[in-house]
Amino acid sequence: MIPDLFTQLPPVRDDLETDTSEAQDETVEACLPFLAGQDDLFEYNEHGVPRINREKHIKFLHNSLGRLPGGFVAADASRPWFLYWSLSALTMLGEDVSHYREAVAETARGMQNDTGGFGGGGRQLSHMATTYAVVLALALVGGEEAFEVIDRKAMWKWLCSLKQPDGGFQVCMGGEEDIRGAYCAAVIISLLNLPLGLTPESPAWTGDSSSNLFTGLARYVRRCQTFEGGISGQPDAEAHGAYAFCALGCLALLDNPRRIIPRYLNVPRLISWLSSRQYAPEGGFSGRTNKLVDGCYSHWVGGCFPLIEACLSPAASASAGQVDNSARAGLPPVSESLFSKEGLIRYILCCCQDQTKRGGLRDKPGRLSDAYHSCYVLSGLSSAQNQWVLADSDDDKSATGTAADPAWTVLPPLEEDVQIFDKRDRIRPIHPVYAIPDENQRAIRSYFLEKDSEGGFL
Amino acid sequence: MPPKGKAAPKPKGSEANKPSSTSTSAPPPPASTTSTPSSVPSTSPSTVSERSQQRFDESRPNEAAREKSGLSSLAPAEQVAWISSQFARSSAARARLGTKAQRELWRHVNEASLPVRAPKTKPSPGSWGKDRAGQHIGGYTPARFDDRAAKRITLTALEIASRAFKDTRERARKGLLDPLSKEPVVLAENEIDQEKNRRRQMAALRRELYGQTMGQFEQDPEWDDVVPIPQDEPEMALAAIAYPASYAEAISYLRAVMQKKEYSPRCLRLTEHIISMNPAHYTVWLYRASNIFAMKLLIPDEIEWLNEVALEHLKNYQIWHHRHLLVDNYYPSIADDADKVSQFAASERAFLAAILAHDTKNYHVWSYRSYLVGKLGTWGADELAAVEAMITDDVRNNSAWSHRFFLVFSNPAHSTPGTAATDPDPAVPRDIVDRELQYAMVKTYLAPQNQSPWNYLKGVLAKGGRRLASVEAFAAEFVAGLGEGEEVEQVRSTHALDLLAEIYAEKREKEKADLALRRLAEKWDRIRVGYWEWRRKCLDVEG
């Protein structure tokens, strides 16, 4: 009932012991009882997979939005993340979070700076990551009251001030430049329908209109691909799972993924590296070569596959076929999946659920659940359970911020030969780039698009 | 002038009275030492509330009996005494009496030794208020109450002295002259220390008496000129943190000094204090850097401080951006002095070794390290040796392998700037490519299933523009009897088999490549079956 792939050590193992192998062996040892259906607190189905404990996770996530005890002081600069993580996870679990609208709007208002963007809390510097989290949280609760919190003009100016001559973005004034900045900026610009033109105050301003917010961004992303094929946080560093998603997500917002991903990245090396992140018997993903599996990479690495698979998929129209084929560099489409969905789903449901009354999802057995892992473990589960396709949309020259609708559609659930999880445990699909439900990204984008068509941005 | 009458003491808390049964604190008794029979307390009071009640009763002889049964129930002498008391206490009532009647009244009062002064309102047990523990103060024993009263007096005295200190400081600041000595007012160093000591006492008393906390900064005379800006969040704010008081206070001062863009030693100390409580507060780090640059402080001092902080907070990454900013600022000042640069590089390397010993794969440390190499131009043997030591320590440390790749192939002395990491670079000398291939292969033998040197090997081949087939013999060492049956087939490294599949594809040996991929999918690396199947499809496209 449980394939031995998930209950036994891998067939090739080295004798040499180092810190890395010891940590790896300990992790496998910690996971095996859960994977083998031996944990007393779970009820396993005939495939040796437990149900998802919706009720407890939902309770845990609502609590994460409430008043946090003093020990959370270390999170004082990342409170917007708690909003996004919790609301996103609740949404994926099927909860209606619109009743948080007023509270999210009020909280966000207190974190917004007159000079544009949102900080980690009141009177903190605006930061790309916290701004991204606030914007997504507002999109998740939806509605005019939430959208209108955002001062888009100030936001645009602020983004211009972070844009660097080399194409990338700083994460805040005086802060570091990295690929998170690139991804977050692309998401913010695209969701809020911001203009691409630069202000003269921008470090990337060239004195004319020859460069804009997206100029050189894809080249910056390319500089982050390493010799291993994965993506690093900034040029010259180690390939890391979280940054792989940022890279692909960013590119997918700049242009049609079929065209832009092969143009800027070495796709075979990237796929090789991404695929190497999945381990057996754990089934989950690690973030780097020779590091341990961690539930959060279910999203950061797992979320790369829909984008890669879309980039490999043939465009439907014949006219686009030629362009498409050259862009894909002669790589074949993927027939089923580039990674083991079964492995990932097993890891998530068996190893990442806190089965005590605490609830929530976690990195791995023995670790405490938290809002961060709850969000990204569920995002990963969602992308493993739902199939997205990129419709043929070569006509629109993309999503260059003009809010052209990226033609992602989710397929209805397939009746698989063997489905190891209970039908009721299917998680709500989320958009492969924005990582929120499709209808939420549509609502916020069309709200601003309409608004601008009526009155113009300025 | 009314004659002196025996007065009941006022039940005022600030008057540290002893129990009044013997009326020692009253004005001298006018007539005799005899006391009014009805006013002798039956017992000494156990609480201040009870004491007040007794005093009230003492000051109003016969009142209790009258209240109970009416004036007519009293004996005639008692009735006279009661009425006289009423008149004695009220000048308004006396005004209605004629001179003679008044004289009569005072005579009577004196003879009967009636109390003239008395508490106006009837004491109620709740009127004392509650202490910080929620206990009624009226329920205190007199001794305890006196103790509290003494502390309140002490606090008041301290507050007055503190105001005087602030006043002196203000005069000193304005350069005013002392009115008596005609000398300029100066604030001595010891006066500040005294004031600090005074505030500590005030804080302790306020906490004890009223449960009020007086924060560290409120206690510090140095911060008196800053009006803290407290957090003003709506009630309904989500994920609000119940901040410890010390943190909330420090942040409220941070907001205030940031708003006025103050850069000063005290601001630097404030940032240190906040960082010790929450090193993930990126705003405070950037503000700290601004302070250092604005005051032109010595960067090496700051780096020394930062070393300790980094060791305390291993997982924190704001520390590393701060260090990055410091080096950006510092480097131009030493750039022309090769000795200074190499000295600095050596001290940084030593510190990085120390921190990586705690956390060998810390992403932010390694990212900083690659930045540092580029900044200082330390592409040489020392850095290579340092990273080699880490690979020797744990051959699976992929961060170290990545750093080595950067060190070798991004060295501007023999690489083409701007070349993608996965692309060939003709500027890399052959012997370096050979050396690196050799290094990777030697390390592979230690643990053939370790993916790091395999990725490195492929990376070097790509950089050198070498054919994969140039390492076919090496890769083949780890695979035997492929496809020749379960008994015979041996794979000591799935990465070798993967590379062989690529080599066969490169050589257009499609069937051999397909077999390698199939065996990976079927047996040797089953979790990646989807990937191996896709690779098989690639063979068709390539073919």
Give the arrangement of secondary structure elements.
The complex is a heterodimer of chains A (458) and B (543).
Chain A lengths: L18 H17 L18 H12 L13 H14 L8 H11 L16 H14 L2 H4 L4 H11 L16 H13 L25 H7 L17 H14 L2 H8 L2 H10 L20 H4 L3 H9 L5 H10 L13 H11 L19 H15 L2 E3 L17 E3 L27 H18 L3
Helix pairs in contact in A: 2-3, 3-5, 3-17, 4-5, 5-8, 8-10, 9-10, 11-14, 16-17
Chain B lengths: L47 H12 L3 H7 L6 H14 L1 H5 L3 H14 L29 H33 L14 H22 L34 H15 L5 H13 L4 H13 L4 H14 L5 H17 L3 H21 L4 H14 L4 H13 L4 H12 L20 H17 L4 H13 L8 H5 L2 E2 L9 E2 L2 H13 L3 H15 L4 H14 L1
Antiparallel strand pairs in B: 1-2
Distance between the termini of chain B: 128 Å
Class from helix and strand fractions of chain A = mainly alpha
The geometry of chain B reads as: elongated
The first-level CATH class name of chain A = Mainly Alpha
Multimerization status: heterodimer
SS strand fraction of chain B: under 5%
Helicity level of chain A: 40-55%
Gap from first CA to last CA of chain A: 62 Å
Secondary structure: number of strands of chain A: 2
The number of distinct helices of chain B, counting runs of at least 4 residues, comes to 22
**CATH level-two architecture of chain A:** Alpha/alpha barrel
Strand content of chain A: under 5%
* Low-confidence residue ranges of chain B: 1-39
Q: Report the structural category of chain B.
A: mainly alpha
Alpha carbon gyration radius of chain A: 22 Å
Question: Could you tell me the mean pLDDT of chain A?
Answer: 92
Low-confidence stretches of chain A: 318-327, 394-404
